[in-house]
Amino acid sequence: MPTFISTANEDFIHDCAVRLDGFLRAKGVEVIQKSWGDEKHPEPHVFLINQKDELAREANDEEAAFFKKTSLINIRSNNNAEKRSSRSLDI
């Protein structure tokens, strides 16, 4: 199951997000890790809440797209598993 990790350059848990990324990758987990903001445009821990901020809107859109994509993958995977399971019951 892929994992989406989102943080910001001024996030007080930024380094934890980076460590989590490395830990999960070492375990073979597919990871998308995003760090938002830069020196000229620093972003804090909860920057995603400010919907008047263009970067927050972009970050939320990327995260939503990830969840839509992975949800569709899981639905298709579950449907295929159910089909295989029901075929094996047909005797």
Describe this structure in words.
There is one protein chain. This protein has two helices and two strands, in the order E-H-E-H. It is an alpha+beta fold. It has a two-stranded parallel sheet. The radius of gyration is 18 Å and the shape is flat. The model has no long low-confidence stretch (mean pLDDT 85).
N-to-C span: 33 Å
Number of beta strands = 2
What is the tally of helical segments?
A: 2
Strand content: 5-15%
Mean pLDDT: 85
Largest sheet: 2 strands, parallel
Report the uncertain regions.
none
Shape: flat
Within the largest sheet, what's the order of strands?
1-2
Percent helix: 40-55%
SSE string: EHEH
Rg, Cα atoms, Å: 18 Å
Computed structural class: alpha+beta
